[in-house]
Amino acid sequence: MTAPRIEPGTVQETLLIPLYGRAVDHAREEPVLRDALAARLVEAVDYDFTPFDGVPSLLGAVLRTALFDHWTRQFLDDHPDGTVVEIGTGLNTRYERVDNGLATWFELDLPDVMELRRALIPGSPRRTGLAHSVTDPEWTRAVAAARPAPDAPLLLSAEAVLPFLTEEEARATLTMIAARLPGAWLALDTAGPAIVDTQDSHDALGKVQARMRWSCPGPEALTAWLPGARPLATHTLSTLPAEFTDRLPGWCRETLTDLAARRLPQVEEYRLGLLRLP
Description:
Blueprint: H1 12-26, H2 36-44, H3 57-78, E1 83-87, H4 94-98, E2 104-109, H5 111-120, E3 127-131, H6 138-146, E4 154-158, H7 167-180, E5 185-191, H8 193-196, E6 230-235, H9 242-245, H10 250-262, H11 265-268, E7 270-276
Parallel strand pairs: 1-2, 1-4, 2-3, 4-5
Antiparallel strand pairs: 5-7, 6-7
Helix pairs in contact: 1-2, 1-3
């Protein structure tokens, strides 16, 4: 089979940054994630990854993914037969890393991304691909229809998705999700102005055309849009929870200690949060 081609400047290009980060991490003697599939996907895609070699923020992308994995495991520990929705799934392989053999999974992304995903990642009976934009209400109808009850356990994971919307789009999308999928857990990331205003010089984003458009002080600020929503966790990469960091390799904990001491604005204004929707 001909290797799928990713053209520079296309929407797929942004999903290659976290993919490459996981592949680079997998090659370490002590990886944060053990993601052999990510390494194989990098080999399978026709794309020049060398501009991202040595980029420090690849580790940030890996840690973000690992924290979202951690939250997904916590959710499935509490709700083994719950439903997980990967919003903007790209070429993420969370199902392969975290699935418990019982949960129902949905993987959502734009049609051309889902076509790429189908060409590279085998399907399975408990996972369904949804070819829609996150702003399209149609995907919420599919998830709601599969929910055993209106309040059945549901985790929505929006990793590196919402900051690329406008503020108006983000507000409308989050309001829609809360109305159609009440009581869900929502894992997401937000970017403050120190990140959004300087992304042209960012070590990874500066090498692609996609740009973040929504500046937000943090996930807890979304309760103003979503009355009744409850923040469950908010972290920066320098304030990750102890139950998570205690399981990281020693070299990674040392890196995070150094990061916390430096208090860089582009680190402190990037926040990872978990909300319970009303």
